[in-house]
Inverse folding.
């Protein structure tokens, strides 16, 4: 399966405080060129959690277009995962959500 930057996918999301994982949506933040060269993807968390917000959280305004189940936000809690562990590709962010997610990513990485 091919993956492009800003695709939404379902993956076993790692918890930092325990060995367990849970299937969750995630955002592909690595570029299509990177993804074609490597067996891993760079992903960011997608969350509906409203009780703990990060200043860098980015609201997904067009969540239905991205084929997400609920209103949510992108949290730049990033990790790598082998492509083989991706359960399925859901969709892709809209242009306006790509713009805001890209801006948040660039600001967080100092670019």
């Amino acid at each position: 399966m091919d993956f492009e930057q800003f695709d939404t996918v379902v993956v076993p999301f790692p918890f930092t405080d325990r060995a367990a994982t849970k299937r969750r949506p995630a955002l592909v933040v690595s570029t299509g060129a990177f993804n074609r060269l490597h067996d891993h993807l760079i992903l960011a968390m997608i969350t509906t959690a409203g009780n703990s917000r990060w200043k860098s959280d980015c609201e997904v305004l067009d969540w239905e277009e991205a084929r997400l189940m609920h209103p949510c936000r992108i949290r730049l809690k990033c990790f790598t995962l082998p492509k083989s562990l991706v359960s399925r590709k859901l969709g892709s962010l809209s242009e306006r959500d790509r713009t805001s997610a890209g801006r948040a990513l660039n600001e967080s990485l100092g670019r």
Notes: The beta strands are 7-14, 21-28, 40-47, 58-60, 72-82, 88-92. The longest strand covers residues 72-82.
